[in-house]
């Protein structure tokens, strides 16, 4: 079966992680499972380990850390998993994916194996780019933000649409109907903050780059206009810089 290295961590210093696990990786036998928010997470791992199986995972879990070592979970739990592109033998890749899925099944994890995990990655980053950033910048919950002014919902929709524009530019098949689905989903839920807002309040570095920065840079690379995304990413980058500096003291 080979070793399984799981990365269910906050994606803060993503480029540094491959070297931190390098001694444990057997490129021909290991599989790396990345369980994180954001898009582009797999890139530094693929660059470091070009022949290793990478299993990309998108998880939806309601949880908050009340204090160190104490995590409160809600009833929400779901995960999608799939392979990140590799030129290796696809039979071997599929078997390693099945092996990892068997571990999740044994642990009674709710999950689905999907054919193109980038669809689920980008769908969740559309969600996170909106709710994480806007609840953090305003320190409001989702419902309070959307009802804060007549322009709040249109601005949220513009932000989501711009991220979808970039996803489409990356050949990820996501439709604009996702915007209505995500707005409807948040309105059907009780008012919530976000993990980014919690990190900000606690003075912890935030997942700004992996959620907002990758779509921002891809938009620039592809010549796609993302004015709302640009503004929010630049402001949060400045805010996050302060938190990063404070965390290093």
From TrEMBL:
Record InterPro entries: 6-PGluconate_DH-like_C_sf, 6PGD_dom2, ApbA, KPA_reductase, KPR-Related, KPR_N
EC number(s) given by UniProt: 1.1.1.169
Domain Ketopantoate reductase N-terminal intervals: 9-84
Catalytic activity annotation: (R)-pantoate + NADP(+) = 2-dehydropantoate + NADPH + H(+)
Enzyme class per UniProt: oxidoreductase
Gene Ontology process terms (BP): pantothenate biosynthetic process
Gene Ontology CC: cytoplasm
Residues covered by the Ketopantoate reductase C-terminal domain: 116-237
Alphabetized GO MF terms: 2-dehydropantoate 2-reductase activity
Family listed: Belongs to the ketopantoate reductase family.
PANTHER family recorded: PROBABLE 2-DEHYDROPANTOATE 2-REDUCTASE, REDUCTASE FAMILY PROTEIN, PUTATIVE (AFU_ORTHOLOGUE AFUA_2G14497)-RELATED
This protein's name: 2-dehydropantoate 2-reductase
């Amino acid at each position: 079966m080979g070793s399984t290295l799981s990365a269910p961590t906050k994606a803060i210093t993503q480029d540094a992680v491959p070297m931190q696990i390098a001694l444990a990786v057997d490129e021909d036998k290991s599989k790396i499972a990345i369980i994180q928010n954001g898009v582009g997470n797999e890139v530094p791992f693929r660059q470091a380990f070009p022949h290793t199986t990478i299993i990309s995972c998108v998880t939806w879990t309601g949880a908050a850390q009340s204090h160190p070592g104490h995590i409160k979970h809600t009833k929400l739990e779901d995960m999608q998993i799939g392979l990140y592109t590799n030129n290796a033998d696809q039979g071997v890749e599929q078997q390693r994916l099945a092996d990892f899925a068997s571990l999740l099944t044994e642990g009674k994890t709710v999950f689905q194996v999907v054919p193109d995990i980038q669809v689920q990655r980008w769908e969740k980053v559309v969600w996170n780019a909106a709710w994480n950033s806007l609840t953090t910048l305003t320190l409001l919950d989702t419902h309070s933000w959307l009802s804060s002014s007549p322009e709040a919902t249109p601005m949220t929709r513009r932000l989501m649409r711009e991220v979808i524009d970039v996803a489409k530019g990356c050949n990820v098949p996501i439709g604009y109907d996702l915007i209505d689905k995500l707005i409807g989903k948040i309105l059907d839920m009780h008012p919530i903050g976000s993990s980014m807002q919690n990190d900000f309040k606690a003075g912890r570095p935030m997942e700004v780059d992996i959620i907002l920065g990758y779509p921002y840079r891809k938009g620039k690379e592809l010549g796609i206009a993302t004015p709302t995304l640009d503004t929010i990413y630049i402001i949060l980058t400045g805010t996050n810089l302060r938190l990063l500096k404070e965390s290093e003291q």
